[in-house]
Amino acid sequence: MEDLIQELGKKEKDFLVLDTEERQEYFYNIRAEYNSYLIENEINIKRASEFIFLNRTCFNGLYRVNKEGKFNVPCGKYKNPTICDSNNLRKVAKLIKNVTFEYGDYKKSERFVNENTFVYMDPPYRPLSATSDFTSYTKESFDDEKQKELAQYYRKLSLKKAKLALSNSNPKNVNMEDDFFEDIYKGFIIHEIFAKRRINSNAKGRGEISELLITNYEE
User: Which of 69, 130, 181, 205 is such that its CA lies 20 to 30 A from the CA of 142?
Assistant: First the structure.
């Protein structure tokens, strides 16, 4: 962890003294280097520091890739971004010291789930309109058929007596007759909640919006 903090500290020091044009060049050089890796490549300090740097300096901290799987979020316009949050990194390192992370298709999680498990699912949100297609954060499309497939998996895990919670967009924001989620999650509890939308090109459009939290248990 100290090696990572040292590498991030260097990036922060180098980045903050640059002017706007130089920051752009620095950012896109790091992004190109990060995109040169393959998913199966070793995750080392350099690669980890580049990932965190991009997260802290890109537009709204958004992670999105193109059809080739390459990170394509542009540089943000922050005056003084915190690139190396050493205190937080040390705390996180302590919390996940004995945690094992698994990468793969979500269905591989079934073998870890039993009656003592709580599962939270945060799939790509179903877009509310043709111009708000949030399924494009990854190179694979997460369309309505994929949403239905996930709902079937949700039912499968529910039969294992696990506690489940899943969030998604609320189609009724734009069409009160749209019962898509009521249909595919019939029999489960659908809560309407309000959350602030933080990713919008217009800051005025980042207010509260209705979303759904679907559970298989009462609060």
Answer: 205
Report the CATH fold assignment for 2-95: Adenine-specific Methyltransferase; domain 2 (1.10.1020)
The tokens describing 165, both together, are 């919670």
Q: What is the CATH number of domain 106-215?
A: 3.40.50.150
What is the model's pTM? 0.76
